Amino acid sequence: MHYPYLIIGGGMTAAAAVAGIRRRDKDNPIGLYSADRYPPYNRPPLSKKLWLDERLEGIWCRPLLDQWGIDEHLATPVVELDTASHTIRDAYGTVTGFDTLLLATGGIPRRLPQDTHHDLVYFRSLDDYLKVYHTAKPGTQAIIIGGGFVGSELAAVLSLREVAVTVIFPESHLMAAKFPRDLAKYLEQVYHQHGVTLLAGREVAGVTRSGGALTVSISDGTTLTAPLVIAGLGLEPNTALAKAAGLAVDNGIVVNPHLETSAPGIFAAGDVASFTLPFVDRRLRVEHEDNALVQGRLAGENMAGAAKSYDHLPFFYSDLYTMGYEAIGTIDSQLEIFADWTTFGEEGVLYYLHNHQVVGVVNWNVWDRIPQARQLIVDRITMAHAKDLKGRIRPD
User: Fold this and answer.
1) Which helix (H) or strand (E) holds 225?
2) Which domain holds residue 220?
3) H or E segment at 185?
4) Is the Cβ–Cβ distance between 184 and 173 less than 8 Å?
5) Domain total for the chain?
6) Residue 58 neighbours by CB distance under 10 Å
7) Residue 297 in contact with residue 306, Cβ under 8 Å?
8) pTM higher than 0.90 for the full model?
9) What CATH number corresponds to the domain at position 15?
10) In whole angstroms, how large is the CA radius of gyration of the chain?
11) Residue 65 has pLDDT above 70, yes or no
């Protein structure tokens, strides 16, 4: 087989790339190879809306993919990429040629070395969601390891489902790496009010299975047992195929402004891509929906000859009980933070500064203001005083 356009990966980035290709080329064949047994779907609802008001049917990219006409090879891992001959080989030995190719291989969940038998749910996929959904019945217990984005979201939705949730994390407070101390403490109060037990400043020392339950040994010498243990420890970029092919890799697959890798005609986008922006002084690798969709679409256009530069600063969002936020740029609690609250904990804007310039913004229960926040970061205006930011981004 030979495809003018070939995509390796089956997530949101891959689906967006198909859309990008079809914006410029309506007819030529597109091949998509994915190790996943499911066609492309949206991942954010797995820890958000699927637990509240969205139906499973709403996550699929299927209607759009059917419209665009692609050849899907599901449950078909690609094991070799030859950049010289422009061919791939899949796990079943089939060799396929291509003119241009996109690596949208995403990320692999970080695992606990103490989990020797892989009994934990490393929450990432639809199968992970289905396993948690069918196990976490009201009145059951669940242990979550990790107090970051996934851990905080799952703790919220499971407690609303009347599951007794315990969260174990090494930081001093939930989301301490992202939010200032006063907001992190306020957030913890909300979780306590919903019956969530937070074990801060602790790490997992071991995991053992006993019958239908798992026992987690904690660094303080205590143990906890539950039928469900979930780990949300972040991702490692899935660069194995790229490395074996000799592509440049540096915390992701290195791409140029056109999202092309070190090999001509081969592109990378999404969670796995290491890219630069003209107004950021370091390489970025972003694991959020906005980046997957925008970067994937532009990569697809460039595969079809567009030669556009990626200059989009992506944002991300989260929902926690009745609270929610949209964030963009570098969100790091070690930076200088100016908090412009309308009402503390309920509505406000947090500005993250480095060298007197805004490098990140969190809009807390403030919506549809990401374009303003993005422009503030892109402009790189030097602020004589952080308090001069007061009122710069206003809620409705």
Assistant:
1) strand 223-226
2) 121-231
3) helix 181-193
4) yes
5) 3
6) 12
7) no
8) yes
9) 3.50.50.60
10) 22
11) no
